[in-house]
Design brief:
about 50% helix; about 200 residues
Length: about 200
């Protein structure tokens, strides 16, 4: 570590956290990044569980009169609509791929359906595990960035904005930012993971 780096760490303000020898962040920033990482991880884990096993969720049920009521957590299950529970006969990507029209749509359109399904489910399971537990953050960072860029430009132009896909553009950049902030090291296993595994698995 250079003298400049040593000075930067030595002069770190109170309530800060040394992420590595070149990065010192306020505690509030590292805590927020960790919460953001875990939240995104749980989003991906839920997507895997729902699409893998045919689980659906609603925060209300519709009364016979047509009015929404009985607010709460309402779950239902249909094994025939889950990729895993249906014996891999139900495709979680078919509807999406059928509507792709952007400059990168050819990538998913030309792959066999089974490969599209496996790639998608593997990706969201991997991102869910990596982000929730703070491991594989380098792989998750670049992989999540590329996955969301692929989705963004497979459906370009987006439906709700002339340029920005409100979900996938933001997810792509957030996951990359979490990697650069080493967000897996707080409230996760990132620090241990990086110390015990080779860089290719980080």
């Amino acid at each position: 570590m250079t003298t400049t780096d040593e000075t930067m760490v030595a002069e770190a303000p109170r309530h800060s956290r040394t992420v590595n020898e070149r990065l010192v962040l306020p505690e509030s920033v590292t805590a927020t990044a960790a919460l953001l990482r875990i939240s995104l991880g749980l989003v991906y884990l839920w997507a895997f569980g729902a699409q893998g096993f045919g689980i659906t969720y609603s925060n209300s049920v519709t009364a016979p009169s047509g009015k929404a009521g009985s607010y709460g957590w309402h779950f239902s299950y249909d094994s025939s609509h889950g990729w895993i529970s249906s014996g891999f006969s139900h495709s979680p990507t078919a509807a999406y791929i059928g509507n792709t029209h952007g400059p990168l749509a050819f990538i998913v359109q030309r792959l066999p359906q089974g490969l599209d399904d496996f790639g998608w489910m593997f990706a969201i399971a991997g991102l869910g595990i990596a982000l929730t537990f703070g491991i594989f953050m380098r792989i998750a960072g670049w992989g999540g960035f590329l996955l969301n860029i692929l989705i963004w430009f497979s459906g370009f132009p987006p439906s709700s904005n002339p340029v920005i896909d409100g979900t996938h553009t933001i997810y792509a950049l957030l996951i990359l930012l979490l990697m650069f902030l080493h967000a897996g090291r707080r409230w996760g296993f990132g620090r241990w993971w990086e110390a015990h595994l080779p860089p290719v698995l980080q």
